């Protein structure tokens, strides 16, 4: 079981900063299930209804790792649902991530800068746009049992 938290930035969004919370479960070999909840970092609007979070789930694959396990190349693919900040329409979301996880000393804690390409942009009619938005971020991960 691995849990993570960290900020991400989405270029062009009305509220570009989000706090991402991640949960990963080791499946077998280099494969993990991976779930992300991304919550916009904004004050509650005047109408009192908070901006909704985006939730997505999928898989992660550790594509390469140093012999000591201190550096890992991680590929993540997720699908889920996104809500437009402008219209509150719920649409399908897809993202692909690549990150490099650095183990902090001999601990079970990692820091992982990553880059995400996501189609979370939504038009005023609520249809999902075919373009991907670049979204860099960094997360701190804690891995139970050091995997």
Mind explaining what this structure looks like?
The chain has 147 residues and is mainly beta. 0% of the residues lie in helices and 61% in strands. It has no helices and eight strands. It has strands at 2-9, 17-28, 31-40, 54-65, 71-83, 90-103, 109-118, 133-143. Strands 1-2-3-4-5-6-7-8 form an eight-stranded antiparallel beta barrel.
Please give the structural blueprint.
Elements: E1 2-9, E2 17-28, E3 31-40, E4 54-65, E5 71-83, E6 90-103, E7 109-118, E8 133-143
Antiparallel strand pairs: 1-2, 1-8, 2-3, 3-4, 4-5, 5-6, 6-7, 7-8
Question: Quick check: average pLDDT?
Answer: 82
Major sheet: 8 strands, antiparallel, barrel
Helix-residue proportion: under 10%
Beginning-to-end CA distance, first to last residue: 8 Å
Tally of DSSP helical segments: 0
Question: Secondary-structure element order, as H and E?
Answer: EEEEEEEE
Q: Using DSSP, what is the number of strands?
A: 8
Radius of gyration computed on alpha carbons: 16 Å
Overall, the morphology is elongated
Unreliable spans:
121-129
Q: Hey, roughly how much beta strand do the residues contain?
A: over 45%
Strand order of the largest sheet: 1-2-3-4-5-6-7-8
Structural class: mainly beta
């Amino acid at each position: 079981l691995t849990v993570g938290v960290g900020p991400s930035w989405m270029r062009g969004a009305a509220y570009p900063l989000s706090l991402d919370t991640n949960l990963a479960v080791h499946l077998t070999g280099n494969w993990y299930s991976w779930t992300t909840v991304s919550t916009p970092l904004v004050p509650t609007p005047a109408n009192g209804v908070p901006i909704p979070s985006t939730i997505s789930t999928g898989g992660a694959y550790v594509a390469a790792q140093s012999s000591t396990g201190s550096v890992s190349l991680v590929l993540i693919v997720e699908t889920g649902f996104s809500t437009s900040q402008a219209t509150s329409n719920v649409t399908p979301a897809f993202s692909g991530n690549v990150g490099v996880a650095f183990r902090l000393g001999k601990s079970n804690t990692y820091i992982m800068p990553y880059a995400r390409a996501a189609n979370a942009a939504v038009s005023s009619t609520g249809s999902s746009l075919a373009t991907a938005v670049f979204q860099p971020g960094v997360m701190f991960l804690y891995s139970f049992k050091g995997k």
